[in-house]
Amino acid sequence: MFSRIAALLTAALLGTALLQPAAGQGAHTGDVFVDRAGVLRWAKGKQEVALFGVNYTAPFAYSYRALGKLGVDREQAIRQDVYHLARLGVDAFRIHVWDVEISDTLGNLKENDHLRLLDYLVDQLERRGIKIILTPIAYWNNGYPEKDTGTGFSSIYGKGEAYTNPRAVAAQARYLTQFLNHRNPYTKQLIRQDPGIIAFEVCNEPHYHQPEGPVTAFANRMAGAIRATGCRKPVFYNIAESPQVHNAILNAKVDGLTFQWYPEGLVGGHTLRGNFLPYVDRYPIPYAGDTRFKSKAKMAYEFESADVVQPVMYPFMARSFRTAGLQWATMFAYDPLALAYANTEYQTHYLNLAYTPAKAISLLIAGEAFRRVQRGQAFPSYPADSTFGAFRVSYREQLSEMNTPAAFYYTSSTGTRPVAPAQLRHVAGTGASAVVRYGGTGAYFLDRLAPGVWRLEVLPDAVPIRDPFAKTSLAQPVTQILWNDQPLRLALPGLGDDYTLRGLNEGNAVRAMATGGRATVRPGVYLVAAAGQNTAAYGAQTPFGAGQLGEYAAPAPTELGPQVRHTPPAQAGAGQPLRLEATITGAGPQDTVLLVAQHYYGRTETLPMAATAYATYAATVPAALVYPGLLRYWLVLRHAGQNLTFPGAFAGQPSDWDYAHPEHWEVPVVAAGAPLPLYNAGADKDLTEAHGVGENAWTDYVTTPTGALALRLVQGPVSAKNLAPAAGAPVVALRAYLGERLASRPAAELAGFRTVVVRVRAAR
User: Fold this and answer.
1) Quick check: is 266 in a domain?
2) Residue 403 falls within a domain, yes or no?
């Protein structure tokens, strides 16, 4: 993971089973095998495998330490997260085991709390029917983002020597032997025999170089160590990290190859904005035509739409994986519920059902797409492929959607109607649809138990209050959780308008009846039934899937007080009304939200802000106040006669004689036809990705002779080690989102712009 975090742009690089059980001869029911055509199949029934899910790291490294620091019961944390994964339809789990925490320097396995929690996690996953692929060797130490404390063999052998140093090779072989022969005290199974663990990936992201002979020899030695234990499960090997020696891996005696995908790069330091669907329209594999490649199974051990919280990327990525022939894909990495409020585990990743509800529902939809799209199935190019089968993806609507007779899932409000309402059995989403209108921002799930009887699960409201991909800290929440009474309207077949609601989860004693299809609900689980329906057979302990009807997991409210998140427009057009919108939490129904707008040294107007959706408020500054110059403004929350002013959350309001706080928002107001600045090195440096593409290219910020800040793009001198880039090849990359700049001027005015001016100068 760490080399990828340091990576600049990650390409989708990317592979004949020599030793495997005969078809149908798996050691345990549920085992898989790789056939001669490189297809991973279930031993029982011979059907193709298609599994989709996540990585999740609670037993190890930062997650383990952070859970302890917060005083969280780690077993309870795992149970809650696995429940949420099951709710999201996850059926695949992968983790690169932090060998550095469960081994000594000789490769002997250490029985400790990390290993115990891995065993516990495996047991919990298997209880939910989630299949597992383990990567026993991670190579990482355990520190990121803190200091390393691991003491196993990976703490003394780096990736560059792990496959050539005889001591390192011997330690890894010893460790693999002991790890696969370890007995899980919860499942009572040896790891190598556990039917829930369907395969092994030898090691995580190894780093190799020429010559290729030692690479093949090492891969064979490690695969041989696994098989020498008696394990006959498929053995996978990473081919993505060292493409320069891909032939060495293609020649290795392994059953499958592993890949990753981080299409926008990693660690941008801020939320990436814009349409990235074209980035994931295809998953190219350079050697897909190689016969050695064709005879091996393929899995994506990690993928993510890094630094992107939009709920549209996963379904496209899942479909592209299937077109490329992959049969397993696991996102890296699902955030533990107890840590997701701050997104501290891996800054560039952010996914949790409670804290990123729309993105999480998109994972649910992506899993369905992965299982429904046929291996190798082709699709037209974007945007013609935005609708495929039962799925629809829209960047403009920020919507992923699945619509089948039995299930209707969506990531935001949609006008689509279910294809067969009478056959509907499952609904999941955020926002509103033809069958559910919900006023909150959390995810909800509806599952039909019988005609006229449904289980309703509602997660708390989640409101983003900071950029989750900027620098993070456990002391700084990025998403606020609120438990609110929210309006609900159901229009489900057989339910009627006067349905009843009965609380099922612990502490939920609600008994209510809807009026005209409308009710009010708080976060929790409810039995929803048509009027007169006998529901005595349904209680909190009634079996539901692999769990019980009353099962529920949700974070407590975030005790922060009122919060405001707002970004001023880059510009405003003179003489045009200016609409300003903000996310505001902590405003009750009796409170007032005001916008105080002042033309610099000019007149001031106080305008009421109206709630346009939960936690979203807007007001329009009249055109008379929007004349060339500088408009500055504040937001005031008025509660019980007391004023709180933002930015800053200061007591009082700007008109008070003793309001001495200088914080404010401002927007330049320009006359029609004025140039529109698209990029300014000084102002936009924290919202721009600028990187060198090759090892001999880099970027930095310098001052010009006039004192202005400028972005410098550098190509280093050519040498025997650092070769000149190929003609026409990119040297550096600059990416900036311009959509908000363009939106700050009227469309009619934008149509009049004809020239883009770029100021660049060469320096020696």
Assistant:
1) yes
2) no
